[in-house]
Amino acid sequence: MAASVSSPQSGSGNLHVFWHEGMLAHDTGNGVFDSGIDPGFLDVLEKHPENSERVKNMLSILRRGPISPYITWHSGKPALTSELLSFHSTEYINELIEADKEGGKMFCGGTFLNPGSWEAALLAAGTTLSAMKYVLDGHGKLAYALVRPPGHHAQPTQADGYCFLNNAGLAVNLALNSGCAKVAVIDIDVHYGNGTAEGFYRSDKVLTISLHMNHGSWGSSHPQNGSIDELGEGEGYGYNLNIPLPNGTGDRGYEFAFSELVVPAIQNFEPDMMVLVVGQDSSAFDPNGRQCLTMEGFREIGKKVHSLANRYSGGRVLVVQEGGYHVTYSAYCLHATLEGVLNLPISLLSDPIAYYPEDEAFPVEVIKSIKKYQIDKVPFMKQAEF
């Protein structure tokens, strides 16, 4: 794919987007929402929420939307088995390979490995690694891995939540193995990034911050609750910061959470590489989330990450795609997020749907209570400049 021919505005820089069409081959099927079940009494079965159409719209809005002059395109490639072992166990990778050879398997609720899925998962992992390597090698500061199947629920030894391989986790390990001393992961998908957290739960080299709706555990594949007391273990104690937000938190609530919790944590951790894990299922209209973020909120999050990266990681940010299941609005919210990451001076796209009413008071009180808990419990946050 060729780079766009238009020149971005002075000072904005380029966004390097990594993509491979082979990821569209992952077919998650039809059924009742994500169950894959046909109950026999419905005339119309819906596509699984994690389907190729959502990503096609993300792809097309970046190719033909007003952000396109700022984008340079790169082709992804499949990950090698040896690369997967930096995050996942040999036994688990062998289980995935065997399931593919046998024609597929449902690993847990809503998580189907079907014919073509394994190749797509390898492409998602490899494309994310290619994007991280591009930044680490100094070719660009801002990269976005447009990938599916998603990855942040995939734990070292098991699949979960539509995810097989932890794309962001693999990229973090690549950064650490390439000389980065500390990496920060900020996950704004509406669901807890439990797989990424699990992979670095005992490490003080990776700060994982997850802002998610307060959904708790959803079974044996997702035993983590995403609660504030899941802080890490051993050397990693205090380096897993969960921010479970009440349903309907909205733009101003997320902005408050960033200013009160995320920014101080990054300031004290001082990472030399940043990974922004994005899921547009935090939007106001997503079928798989209960939050009220609009394009404005996503854009402001991108700007805050841009500012933090400029201060601590030399402006280097890898953005990794996760959820987002409203086929059109997810694409618009992605566009807004990347506008923010590029720190563009004006909005390029207006919001076609919002605004959804927010209840500001309750999220503010929840965030204040999380802040107090972190100050009391997290050693490296006790010196934070609140």
How would you characterize the overall build of this protein?
- The chain has 386 residues and is α/β, with parallel strands linked by helices.
- The chain has two domains: 15-355, Arginase, Chain A, CATH 3.40.800; 360-385.
- The protein is built from ten helices and twelve strands.
- The chain has helices at 52-64, 81-84, 90-101, 117-136, 167-177, 194-199, 250-269, 295-312, 329-341, 361-377, and strands at residues 15-19, 30-31, 46-47, 71-75, 105-108, 111-113, 142-145, 183-187, 206-213, 240-245, 273-278, 317-321.
- The longest helix is centred in the first third of the chain and has 20 residues, at 117-136.
- It is globular, with a radius of gyration of 19 Å.
Short description:
The chain is α/β, with parallel strands linked by helices and 386 residues long.
How is this fold's topology laid out?
Blueprint: E1 15-19, E2 30-31, E3 46-47, H1 52-64, E4 71-75, H2 81-84, H3 90-101, E5 105-108, E6 111-113, H4 117-136, E7 142-145, H5 167-177, E8 183-187, H6 194-199, E9 206-213, E10 240-245, H7 250-269, E11 273-278, H8 295-312, E12 317-321, H9 329-341, H10 361-377
Parallel strand pairs: 1-4, 1-7, 7-12, 8-9, 8-11, 9-10, 11-12
Antiparallel strand pairs: 2-3, 5-6
Keywords: Chromatin regulator, Hydrolase, Metal-binding, Repressor, Zinc
Family: Belongs to the histone deacetylase family.
Protein name: Histone deacetylase domain-containing protein
